[in-house]
# Entry
Amino acid sequence: MAKIKHNNFIDTVDEVISGAKKEGVLHLYVEDEVLNGRTLQIRGKKMFHFGTTGYLGLEQDNRLKEAAITAIQKYGTQFPLSKTYISNPLYSELENKIEAMYGISPIITKNSTLGHLAVIPTVVRDEDGVILDHQVHWSVQNACQLLKIRGIPVEMIRHSNLDMLEDKIKFLTTRCNKIWYMADGVYSMFGDYAPIRELMELCKKYSQLHLYFDDVHGMSWKGKNGTGYVLDILKELPENVVLFGTLSKTFGASGATLLCTDSRLREKIKNFGGPLTFSAQLEPASVAAAIASADIHLSPEITSLQCDLSEKIEYFKSLLEKTTLPMIALNNSPVFFLGTAMPLTAYKMVQRLFNEGFYVNPAIYPAVPIKNTGIRTTLSRHNQKEEIKALVEAMEYHYPKALEESGNSLNKVNTAFGIMETILPIETHKKKNFPSDVMKKCVPDDLRQTITFSEENVEIKTDLVLQYETSIEKINKKNWNEILGRRSTFDWEGLSFLENAFTNPNYPENNWDFHYYVIKDKNGIPVLATFFTYGLWKDDMLAPESISLQLEEKRKQNPLYLTSKVLGMGSLFTEGNHCYINKAHPLAEEAIMLLLEQVETLYHQLNADMVVLRDFEVDEKLNRIFHNQGFLKISMPETCIIENTQWSSIEEFSASLSTRSRKHFTKEILPFEQAFDIVIKNHLTNEELEQAYKLYLNVKNINHAINTFTYPIEVFQKMEKHSGWEFILLYLKNEISNPLVGILFCYKNTSHTYVPALIGMDYDYAKEFQLYRQLLFQAIKRARELNLNKIDFGVSATFEKRKLGATIIPKVAYIQARDNFSMELMGTLQNEDKTRSGN
# Structure
């Protein structure tokens, strides 16, 4: 199989987080000597705190503090034993109080992450199955990886998609005993709720369905005794529901709690629940603080605290509803999300709010899809109405300026989040004075600052001319070839072939639309040129082969399973730098921004699932532009190029190789050449074409390193009739039938580049006769015969190509998807493969 370098998810996340850190909005440190819950000091600046998850403010309650201090004085800083052996003196009291809250005996865990690791592998039996909401908390998804070692099916659905959930239930009904659907009660980013009533109706319809809720963001501020959002809806915990709550966050202490009505199951979890058995228990201070908080939850005071927070939530919500700000899931939870779509807009907005004295959270990938970036604002009882009002006014004032500063627009944000309502445009060019009199009323003296707002001039340049076409036939051949003519198979003639070859209404997976962009300055000088194709891609195209093999099994039943409609730079047939940018031109960056704007418009018109800008060499300036516009950088397979073919003999070619490669060439390649009859043809007979196609299928079916759709034979029939293509055929000598055992499908790009685009092999002879290496060598010889100065060897098998003198060039792509579902689903498949292999 061909080996390629795959993208590492951790590198992608690191790229995003590092970018946010450079903008000064992440990895910050609080500098206060004393915290009060209402304000924070960061980098010497006091700010109102609108980023907490302690919604009731109990972490600052003196009763919890005093209880923790007393416990440390009486019992020490920790009780270093597993709870399986013996619990510290306070545990029993805490368990009794939690039971009084819920009416159910609880299990207390160190935290929710360790709790899920303890509970999920115990609750879910080998004969069960699991369905994950793709936005369920990471700690739940991570715990489910342990199930896959045992062969338990773990499926995933798009967020709160009940139709997809029901399809998965039907799929698992005959395969599983219980079917567990796992979701959050309140989701931490958008503040939206699980559709609990609808889920309970599904439980009535499918008796196998059980529900597992992580309600840590619904705790305390909602429900009788603060038992959370889920129980506020259900009132009582059914037998088929398992509920996780938290003793941290809004509860004000530490730890988590599991509730289920099955007493026997509770005992199993206690007896052997992984971290419950082998991890240390909660520290005495944490248990004591939780007891003090439980006392509050069991008293009428909890209702008063909830009402206080609810009043502030409703006040904040009422102010926001009077604005044109694109708030997502505006409900009665304490979590509010302001959509910005582009990361750069979020960074600029956070910076502006920081400067005004308001701390808020940027919400970025992977917590949300890259193009669903935004600002997460959370309320607590610490927040007062004066600063709440001031925050809304600051948001309303600065949001259009952050949009303008980052080249964004309200329409783009609405489109990114699927907000269909007509929203009046925000005025961005009027000079406005920030209501400093309001700030003076609500901001303490130590928080006041002098703020000067300068007029922000926007210069709209009209020096660029865009040509957009849907066929290469409408673009001047000479001009296109001067700009992009020496690259891969996408000179003018090559694109004419591709348009003809991939117009396949009978094959939706190989039916593409073409879109061309040429941007020039007013003097006609090209600044940027590229093309895109729109069609179906397999979501695992660049995933590890192990994932593709799993998905191909499912595609035997559904050939289009986990595929997406992609607007991609270049095409799946072509490889190389598909985008010409005149970087020395003063309007280069503006041309890139114009292209991105045009592509985004087309993306939404086509209702595509993903945009891919691909095959760029590493460039920090481009990286900054694309990241700030909401694209994720991923590593692409390295590409292989030979640029000097001006040798006059095999000996001279051999001498051009490194010492090690020369030995490889003289022992592993050159001696085997005599085993073949080598024929070069511009046209194939029908019989030869059928043989060639079978050899292509041999390679395609065994190689999932780059998992694209199989090309139909019609593509090769059109190739055979096109003057730009030729075929290098290898027939094995000394066989009765002199069989065709290898073929290269090669494109001649203008008078400069030779492109061995596809390969076919008979694997019965591949190893014995070094068939693959011989085909590569024959391509090099043929390029020299044609006096072509460059060979575009494409991706994969870089080790073999390097030995023949190829230069290896790292490439990256930038992607933008409507959601993270496919990437997260493939992440679960990759983890499953690793757990099975023991890595």
Notes: The chain has 29 helices and 27 strands.
